[in-house]
Design goal:
Layout (H helix, E strand, L loop, with lengths): L9 E5 L4 H13 L4 E4 L12 H4 L4 E4 L4 H7 L2 E6 L6 H6 L2 H22 E2 L2 E2 L4 E7 L24 H20 L3 E6 L2 E2 L8 H10 L4 E4 L5 E6 H14 L5 E4 L3 E4 H15 L15 E4 L14 H7 L7 H14 L1 H7 L2 H14 L15
Parallel strand pairs: 1-2, 1-4, 2-3, 4-7, 7-8, 8-12, 9-11, 10-14
Antiparallel strand pairs: 5-6, 11-13
Bound molecules: nicotinamide-adenine-dinucleotide (NAD) and thymidine-5'-diphosphate.
The site of nicotinamide-adenine-dinucleotide (NAD) has 28 residues, from helix 1, helix 5 and strand 7.
Amino acid sequence: MSAVVTAGGAWLVTGGAGFIGGNFVRRLSRETTAPIVVLDALTYAGNASSIADVLARPHVALVKAALLDALFARHDFTRVVHLAAESHVDRSIVGPQPFLRTNVDGTFQLLEAARRHWTTPNGPLAGRRLLHVSTDEVFGDLAPNAPPFTEASPYAPSSPYAASKASADLLVRAWHRTYGVPVLISNCSNNYGPWQFPEKLIPLTILNALEGRELPVYGDGRQRRDWLHVEDHCAALLAIVERGRVGETYVVGGGDERENIDVVRAVCRAVDEACGGGRAAEGGESAARIRHVADRAGHDRRYAIDATKIRRELGWAPRHSIDEALPALVRWYVEHRDWCDAVRSGEYRRFYDEYYAARLGGNVTAPGRSPAPR
Ligand code: NAD
Ligand code: TYD
């Protein structure tokens, strides 16, 4: 067992059946034998099957719906890692309300529980820490030649998703300053890795390429993101929650800044490679199926992170790059087709059909069904 985790008390991980949360509890459950409670509403994006191996461990439990007060009263939580969120920008544009409910009100409810159970008139109980996991999207659109975001960057969210996360961040800061709730905040760049729900760019492109479908690229595809492997993000989260300074914010990024179109082309190469030494995936070279479609409303052109603070204070550094990680990631999606088919069920298909049909000119077959005849 490593010495990364020092806390002896119980952990609460919200959103632990989602992409990052699942990877996080998988790692955490190896690092500690302390009780871990995963609180997850199991929305379309959350799947108990994603963490079946973790839930088989005796010190890990999944709770689908519970009163936070009852959970805090039953378990002596010393660590809370808050990942539960509605996380997809396009869905937030189509229907913002769930983003306000979960990302803003959900965070408020959690802060109130921590305030009630962790603070006294004489100050906060010792040894408690709540890490609120946020995004670099709160900082908005970064100009092409501007220096990357730091912890001091002003908030300027563009999408309903980003605005809801920014609102949550501000609540977290206020609950620290006003009530002394012992919080930390991380603002991370775009993640990729195993178990990512296939509505996000990289897994959607991998699966569509494997299945011979069209590959939608918004606008000119020259928007830039700073990509970080989820394992590097989880290492950063553990470092922050265990060793970060309470009340501080840490921005986290891989320094792997790429245009979307380059990422999509790199995925195409990895998929074609996986399908047999340069042989194109089903139906022709994957890159030939790239389609530039209507841009996302309010689309931020660029995000980038200057991770100097977490590198310097906590000794964290990313270990992966997209180019090195993509072949293994494509293999992971090939080997987990049952999971992909299961999670791309009713709700996902409905969204995919409605969202992409207009963009691909009605020429869309939802994943999980056979490709349209060409
Ligand atoms: P995800 O959509 O894969 O998972 C979110 C999880 O939260 C799901 O398991 C879902 O069931 C759960 N959930 C949703 N509403 C809930 C509610 N009301 N109560 C309890 N659980 C609920 O998201 P993700 O990509 O794993 O992101 C996790 C966190 O990290 C989010 O807060 C997101 O804003 C943040 N983040 C994500 C990225 C990224 O690139 N994915 C980057 C930076 C920050
Ligand atoms: P996404 O994975 O949704 O993450 P975020 O919006 O949080 O950055 O999208 C990553 C980038 O890829 C973003 O600039 C939007 C773009 N994109 C496409 O071009 N096509 C797609 O089908 C999707 C889902 C995203």
